Amino acid sequence: MKSQRCNHFLYLPPRVDEDIPAEMVAEESGPGAQNSPYQLRRKSLPKRTVCPTKTNMEGASTSTIENFGHRPKRPRVSGKCQDLSVAPAEQYLQEKLPDEVVLKIFSYLLEQDLCRAACVCKRFGELANDPILWKRLYMEVFEYTRPMMHPEAGKFYQINPEEYEQPNPWKESFQQLYKGAHVKPGFAEHFYSNPARYKGRDNMFYYDTIEDALGGGQEPHFDGLIFVHSGIYTDEWIYIESPITMIGAAAGKVAEKVIIENTRDSTFVFMEGSEDAFVGYMTIRFNPDDKSAQHHNAHHCLEITVNCSPIIDHCIIRSTCTVGSAVCVSGQGACPKIKHCNISDCENVGLYITDHAQGIYEDNEISNNALAGIWVKNHGNPIIRRNHIHHGRDVGVFTFDHGMGYFESCNIHRNRIAGFEVKAYANPTVVRCEIHHGQTGGIYVHEKGRGQFIENKIYANNFAGVWITSNSDPTIRGNAIFNGNQGGVYIFGDGRGLIEGNDIYGNALAGIQIRTNSCPIVRHNKIHDGQHGGIYVHEKGQGVIEENEVYSNTLAGVWVTTGSTPVLRRNRIHSGKQVWTCFQPKRWNHDSEINIYGWGLLLRQRPRCCALFSGLGFIEDNEIFDNAMAGVWIKTDSNPTLRRNKIHDGRDGGICIFNGGRGLLEENDIFRNAQAGVLISTNSHPVLRKNRIFDGFAAGIEITNHATATLEGNQIFNNRFGGLFLASGVNVTMKDNKILNNQDAIEKAVSRGQCLYKISSYTSYPMHDFYRCHTCNTTDRNAICVNCIKKCHQGHDVEFIRHDR
After folding, report:
1. Do the beta carbons of residue 362 and residue 389 sit within 8 Å?
2. Whole-number Å distance between alpha carbons of 27 and 362
3. Whose CA is closest to 569, among 599, 548, 554?
4. Which helix (H) or strand (E) segment is 376 a member of?
5. Nearest one of 710, 712, 705, 713 to 767, comparing CA atoms
6. What is the pLDDT of residues 7-62, one digit of tens each?
7. Phi, psi (5° rounding) for residue 700?
8. Rounded to an integer, what distance in angstroms lies between the CA atom of residue 703 and that of residue 693?
9. Are 607 and 591 in contact (CB under 8 A)?
10. 771 and 750 in contact (C-beta within 8 Å)?
11. E-strand stretches of 649-773
12. How many whole angstroms separate alpha carbon 398 and alpha carbon 689?
């Protein structure tokens, strides 16, 4: 139907003594328009401009308006008109006619008449600005139950009138929205059929279809503002290539009541020329009859092509097609602003950004999509802020094939796969997001993926908080990674990356796990209060681990095993917890073994058949202290290098080397440990060079049980029990060591005839000559000291066993 201007209002006014009906008077009674073949006229429109605050409404007419409830009693407006020579009738009308009567009369005026009446005198000016009058007019034209403010081009928002700072937001919004085209089935026919009833709104246009409104650019007063009123608009051909503004108009929740859908083609297509277009407050659906047919693979619910920068605001976007995304942004210069939209329940990808497209995407709700909530591919580089991406049936955000993007302050959670996946040279920047409660992992970087993940909260994911694998090299910096159901950061399969300045705590498995030839840089992290170990390096894991603080973990602070060769420098490893743990072979893939954990650093081989795997690596410039057991354990053919470490204030020994352990200990400071500074046992053979072992509460160095050692240039001083203790049968190689000023409490106790138990109690086991008493039928494991033999077992049949601990 051809568009017609509205020259009259919808209904004749009732008599003054009649009650005003409670329903909206702008009820359309005309028949709905039938869609007809239409070729879109692509005439460029001028940019949408906002109406000035000072009204330019013209013409005069009358109309009936509904009753919006009882108006509170208002004080009478006093004051006289400026013209003192008015006739008595005019004076009565202007000054003495009661306010209620004047307001009743004004209720029959349209907006232009009301503005003219306001110019008569001060009293009329105040009465004509009554908010209830303007609310009636406003809802009749626009249907909104709250004022829709339009302060500038591309910006619309609704307000609560009670909270608005100006006294009459209805009038203000009316002025901002006054010039525009209104679309609803039956509009044009209804107004054309009733020319005598409607008069005065020369700046408004009425259409039956959106296609007709888009072709209305030839109208002289039309400046591109289109109101689509409540209803369902199906299979219209909406290609936008001019800077139009299209907004839904309905009562209540506007977007839910204005529905535009297509069953054959993309519902909205923005083409070159629509750089300043605006679409808002409506539901946009693509709902093909055959949801999986191949001919739908290029169709989307909303498509934004090259050199387009429209604004999409407060829209609900749905697609039931299984082969096309809900929103597709593609091509050089595609740069929309999509905000406050709901992109959910789609049967494919929610938001797809590709082929160098950009854009700003803010405050959107993206949920329950069959594939990723967001795809970024092929140099797509969007800015995505404050989006809520959740409950996806696949990954939350997927960047791949050189996809990029800046993601800030997004809440990404409860997606079926990873919250954020990076693959195939993708390089996104993710800042201050929350990535949590993923059904698998939090962040998954693989197949040469990169990316910067900075200051995010990553927590409560079912698998690792961060996965890095297959030659990927991301930066993980300043994040809190905590309370995961498995590990914190898991690097495997030749993974790399920079893990820096993170707070990693409370995870069920290791805070950081490095395995299978992975080689990351791990520095300046806090790794603490884990339910497992702190850092676990195994299966030929490598990397540089420096200046981390590792503390209060249930198992080892750092655990290096199975041919791994990391470099550890300047770490603080302390406050470990003591735990008895039995590792079952099914879980750990090795023979059953019971170990006492709670140490700062453990290097060991997991026993399996006759294979000789070794814990290697460089442990340099670390601070290891306040652990429940030994600060460092070197076990089972492990052969690390420990250099320039501080190992102190342990609640057990400093370094424990046993079961064939080796290694080079060089230039370390080992002090104030509860047991021996260095204990070497069971066929071990380390090299100790230029270490300082001092202020211990037991021995400096103890060597026992067929172990040997090479000691060169060490300083051993001020230890309570003594400097160096060698068990029977132990031979060591010594050169240039200084053993001096030790307290020699054991030697002094023996010379005084004291029982050594009074020196050590049950907390330590000093090395001494111990005996067996045949009279008392003791065994060689009772370790009776020489003074007890002389006093308690005097005259008994005794036997010297060995010098040992």
Report:
1. no
2. 37
3. 548
4. strand 374-377
5. 705
6. 333 332 333 333 333 333 333 333 333 333 323 333 344 444 444 444 344 333 33
7. -75, -65
8. 14
9. yes
10. no
11. 655-658, 664-666, 669-671, 678-680, 687-689, 692-694, 699-703, 709-712, 715-717, 722-726, 732-735, 738-740, 768-773
12. 53
Distance CA 538, CA 523 (A): 18
Beta bridge partners of 412: 389, 435
Retrieve residue 464's tokens: 């690792």
Assess contact for 627 and 574: CB atoms under 8 A. Answer: yes
Classify 624 as helix, strand or coil.
strand
List phi, psi (to 5°) of 96.
Answer: -110, -20
Instruction: Name the packing angle between helices 111-118 and 131-142 (round to 10°).
Output: 160
Check: CB of residue 73 under 8 Å from CB of residue 250. no
How do 374-377 and 397-400 pair as beta strands?
A: parallel
Helix (H, G, I), strand (E, B) or coil at 443: strand
CA gyration radius, the chain: 41
d(CA 217, CA 201): 18
Under 8 Å between Cβ of 362 and 335: no
What stretches in the chain show pLDDT beneath 50?
A: 1-70, 73, 76-84, 295-296, 578-599, 604-613
Instruction: Tell me how far apart the alpha carbons of residues 41 and 20 are, in angstroms, rounded to a whole number.
Output: 43
Question: 722 has which bridge partners?
Answer: 699
Burial of 506 (0-12, 13-18, 19+ CB in 10 A): middle
Tokens 């300082």 belong to 692
Q: Are 493 and 514 in contact (CB under 8 A)?
A: no
